Amino acid sequence: MTSPPRADDAHPYLRAATSGIRHHTRAQERAVPSQPVGRAHLDVLHAHLTALHRLLNQLAETTRPPHPAAGRQLATAHTRLWQATTAVHDAFHLLPHNTECHPERLPEGPPVLTICQRHLAAGHTIRRKITPADLNTPLHGHTSTCAR
Predict the structure, then answer these.
(1) Distances, alpha carbon 12 to alpha carbons 15, 54, 55, 139, in Å
(2) Is the distance from CB of 116 to CB of 50 less than 8 angstroms?
(3) CA proximity to 50, closest of 124, 131, 130, 142
(4) Are 49 and 27 spatial neighbours (Cβ–Cβ below 8 Å)?
(5) Among the residues of the chain, which ranges form H helices?
(6) Are 135 and 85 a contacting pair, CB within 8 Å?
(7) For 97-146, what is each residue's pLDDT tens digit?
(8) Least crowded by CB within 10 Å, which of 4, 93, 109, 110?
(9) How far apart are CA 109 and CA 37, in angstroms?
(10) pLDDT tens for residues 28-81?
(11) Are residues 77 and 56 in contact, defined by beta-carbon separation less than 8 angstroms?
(12) How many angstroms separate the Cα of 104 from the Cα of each of 1, 108, 113?
């Protein structure tokens, strides 16, 4: 029988992603006079959020049978993350188009199609599990075991 990994060795890919986001945030803070976010930035952020969305869905599904309360909390986080993902997708479409963009030169197609295809694919998962009413319901009854 193997012993569980030490906390600092557990989940190295998640730790690297978290570290990367922290580094990116610090770099943004130091950027030349606060440049507004662009479509490419939101596209990458949307990709990150949809990957995290899939992970939270998987964690909620595997946690729920042995620990129903924890599974419900993860399912709630899954729903709230979808709301954030949708807001980023909407913001992407509200930003101006890059006039120098040549989508025909991109092997994966225009960026607008990439983000929309990703969003639609993730949306299939959420629609199988969550009703529109659930998506619009504020978070009630949230309890935390953390000291305030």
Answers:
(1) 5, 18, 15, 31
(2) no
(3) 124
(4) no
(5) 12-29, 39-63, 68-94, 111-129, 132-136
(6) no
(7) 765 555 555 555 555 568 888 999 999 888 888 888 877 776 554 444 54
(8) 4
(9) 22
(10) 888 777 778 888 899 999 999 999 999 999 999 999 999 999 999 999 999 999
(11) yes
(12) 54, 9, 12
* pTM of the entire predicted model: 0.77
Tokens of 70: 């924890």
DSSP state, residue 143: -
**pLDDT value at position 37?**
85
Two tokens, residue 131 = 């009703």
Buried b (16+ CB within 10 A) or exposed e, 113-125: ebbeebbeebbee
Rounded to whole angstroms, how far apart are CA atoms 36 and 141? 37
